[in-house]
Amino acid sequence: MTRTILSILLCMILPFIPSYAQEDRGKAGLEQYLEKKSLEDLYPGYRKGTLKYSGLEREYLYYIPGFVTGKPVPMPVVVMLHGGSGSAAGETHQSRFHLLAEKEGFIVVYPNSSGGWWNDGRSHLILGEAHRQVDDAGFICALIDTLKRRNPVDTQRIYAAGISNGAFMCQRLAAERADVFAAVAVVAGGMEVSLADHFSPSAPVSVMMINGNEDPLVPYEGGRMGTNEKPRGETIAIGKAVDLWIGHNRCAPGVQELSIPDRDTSDGCTAKKYIHTGGAQGTEVVLVSVCGGGHTWPGTEPYAPALLIGRTCHDFDATTLIWEFFKTHPKKDKEANGIPKSVGSPED
Fold this sequence. Notes:
Structural class: alpha/beta
Shape: globular
Strand order of the largest sheet: 1-2-4-3-5-6-7-12-11-10
Largest sheet: 10 strands, mixed
CATH class: Alpha Beta
Number of domains: 1
CATH architecture: 3-Layer(aba) Sandwich
Order of helices and strands: HHHEEEHHEHEHEHEEEHEEEHH
Strand content: 15-25%
């Protein structure tokens, strides 16, 4: 009974929390940054853009490192996808990828979904049938093409990361547009059932998943999300999603287990990495399992009370961990890792 009541409260309250807590704080942070900078300081730097795609006017924020001057140098791109009912502005506050972009020299783009939700393939999305016709995968790839026309982009280093609904969308991008993305990072998200049932990516993709085993919204062991009144689809177990990518990428047998130091003993969480190496074209699959963790982005301030979304792990910073994973996993050709074309690869 208690679990049912909590689930109902979550479905009623959470759609409003990210848009209030994340978006407002994100906009405030961005506006404070812009107020302190002159137009000269802003170029290159933060930009707001629009892109008309499939009849819809889509918005996005993007950031180009300020030190990129002189001869153009191809840069990696990180596409950061917000959670359900969130926004691009809110995600700048949560993930803070732009801070690493300035230091590490990559472009980060924060797109806005249509109506606050990504079409990640689930049949029970909150916005109904019309929203299931929105081609978000096509929009995101068109956005990348727009960035490529305007900026020097390293096409072997295009990545996507996301939380919650954005994480499910990353799974869809990796599965359906493996030709574009070298690696994806999935935080507090799983893999939608029909995507798993028809899982057949065209190429290997490195994947990192960061999941709390006490996530109240995305069940770690898989199952239905939401309530009978407000269903949110169904996810497969986190372990099964990891296994699908291990098999597809043809990772070597065995797993390396690494405990992440418990730097904050007061957060009620511990974390361990499960690393699967030796995949086709140098790919790897990594699961960061957060024992005691909830529906959160580790290393940042939670967007809602722990009663609603679970505990936030502060033993590591998810943004830093993801970038360290991304930058060591570019796309490689079919013969990388000693795998000749003659034996076939997942693209064949």
